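Homework help board

Subject: predicted structure for assignment chain

Our instructor gave us this sequence and asked us to write out the predicted structure in token form, then describe one feature. I got the tokens but I'm not sure how to describe them. Can anyone check?
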Amino acid sequence: MTNVMWMNLLLILARVGSFFVTLPLTSYRGVPNLVKVFFALVVSYLIFLSAGYSAAVVDNFNTMGMLLLLGGEVLTGLVIGFAVLLFFTVFRMAGQLADIKIGLSMASILDPHFGSSATLLGQFYYLFAIIIYFTLNGHHYLFHTLARSFEMIPLGGPSFTGFTLRIFLELFYFIWIMSFQIAAPIVATVLITDISLGLISKTVPQLHVFLVGLPLKVFLGLFVVYLTLPYMSVVMENIFGRIYTDLIQILESMA
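My token output:
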């Protein structure tokens, strides 16, 4: 391989590696770094062979120019990976909202992905979404989109416009709406329970509503989770169906 081909491979690795940094599952701290690096190298080399990068990206390579190219590729990979991560954040936010209403937010656990504390249902929905995504072979479309990004955005050619920002703003709005809709059955159940307990406390003042209400809300909330869980796969499939189309729009805005 010539020096030009090595430089092109390094640029591909910069985009692919930064993509894996933000991608769910591969960005988990529990995954050994050696495995992540090996996986990124394999994918980068396959893309390099399929694309056939043998020509120089720019006419004259220099240190500053190469650093700028690497920075652009790293930023491109981070943008693509962050967009994918946002779709999985929908379920994490929905679970956290449900935990707050149920009362399970006090029982937090360590999230190895974000490096912070996470609620029980938030982590459960998040991991369940990852399982469903791989069951639907979503990772095949994801790697296809990653490979296609090199066709739509050549090495050294990313550009960020106002349209890119607009797509992300619409994506943030979609995430908030969907997270509230997913948590709506649990929130509604807990709200009805609170109203009922309030009426009971007025009718029977001797009853300690707080002692009864907390375990009751936890039980009813988890029962609603159990009832709605079979339908969650359908909801996740509909949400994940937007990943490919939204990523293509983002890539087109950056081309």
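Reply (TA_rk): Your tokens look well-formed. For the description, you could write something like this. The helical segments are 3-22, 33-51, 63-102, 120-135, 138-152, 162-203, 209-254. That's the kind of observation they're looking for.
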